[in-house]
Amino acid sequence: MSHALRRRYGRLMLAYPGAYRREYGTEIVTTLMDAAGPGKERPTAGEVRDLLLGGLRQRFRLPVGRLMMLAAVLTALTAGALGAAAGSAVGWVTRPAPPADAAVVEIAGLPAGRPTRIDVSRQPEAYGLRYQIMTGLVAANVPWSAEQSAARLEAAGWRVHPAVTGTTEVTYLDARGDTTRTAGTTDLFAERAGILIDVSVVASRDGGDELTLLVVPAEPAPVLPLTLLGAALGLVGGWLLVARLGYRLRRIPPWQRAAIGNLAGVAWLLLALPSIGVYYLAWRAVSGLAHSTVQPSPAAYNGYVYDLDLSPFAAAGLPLAAVVVVLALGARPRRAVPDQPDVAR
């Protein structure tokens, strides 16, 4: 009998979970060896396919029970959100460095159309992944033309998007106190070298225009693919984790199983809100791509962020989830009690 064939069958059995291999691996390989004809050195294509697909089915197979199915779905969704957030963050790491103040002043002079004094302020962003630079013209109520501004930006190498017009409510103080009026707005977006600018113009009551400029990084190309890849890996990984731990938990004492299950429930509740936020922001990113919008939107990882730091729900839920996994992996199955022989009296 070929030892090489047995080794090849053994390598194919690695597709199955370890516990399944320990219980049934020898029996399966022995059956395959017994069925092999004389001189056979390699598994057939059908055997390779059947063993690999069988191993895949066993890895995704859950213990019987509705609670286990619910646990798998919740864990997969939670891990998918975490993967999407991580992929989004990794994608944003690839953005170019923010421009210096002098470069921002030069950029702001293009839509303004004249040398002017500009205030530059930098807004903090969670973990420094996406900078925000705000500028405002010191001299307000300057005349402005979207067409001329776009022409100047294009001449400087910027890719200009069509202007977006709308209205807004403006409140100002006059002799009668606070007065609110409806003012026309125009937003002009342009991109160059990984930088996105938003020229925001509000028509003033004196007939001029008030200009502000927002400078942010354009979304790097890897962000959306890495977000979707992270979500897919998280969904699959979360399901596989429950499939692996479920059989282990089924063999431990009920009180341990209940304790681990309760902790897992708390972790799911804590991570529910951040996860929903991640999925919503990821959906917005995909929807924005479908509608070819250029307006900046929050990154998917912001679902886990609150006030420039990790949200309190995520800060509590992630360590608790890690504790649940460690406890489940460290749980020891109950020892089987051997049957007592009958004693003749």
Highlighted features:
18% strand, 345 residues, seven-stranded antiparallel sheet, two-stranded antiparallel sheet
**DSSP strand count:** 9
Structural class designation: alpha+beta
Low-confidence stretches: 336-345
Mean pLDDT: 87
Task: State the order of secondary-structure elements, H for helix, E for strand.
Answer: HHHHHEEHEEEEEHHEEH
Cα-atom radius of gyration = 31 Å
Keywords: Membrane, Transmembrane, Transmembrane helix
Transmembrane segments: 67-93, 223-247, 259-282, 313-331
Task: Walk me through the structure.
By secondary structure, the chain is α+β, with helices and mostly antiparallel strands. It has 3 domains: 1-61; 65-94 and 220-334; 101-217, no CATH class. The protein is built from 9 helices and 9 strands. It has helices spanning 3-12, 18-35, 45-60, 66-93, 101-112, 146-155, 223-250, 254-290, 312-330, and strands at residues 118-123, 132-137, 159-160, 164-174, 177-192, 195-203, 209-217, 305-306, 309-310. The strands form 2 sheets. Strands 1, 2, 3, 4, 5, 6 and 7 form a 7-stranded antiparallel beta sheet that branches. The chain has a two-stranded antiparallel ribbon with strand order 8-9. Strand 8 (305-306) and strand 9 (309-310) form a beta hairpin. Helix 1 runs antiparallel to helix 2 (18-35), helix 7 runs antiparallel to helix 8 (254-290) and helix 8 (254-290) crosses helix 9 (312-330). The longest helix has 37 residues, at 254-290. It is elongated. It starts with a helix and ends in a 15-residue tail after the last helix. The model is unreliable at 336-345 (pLDDT under 50).
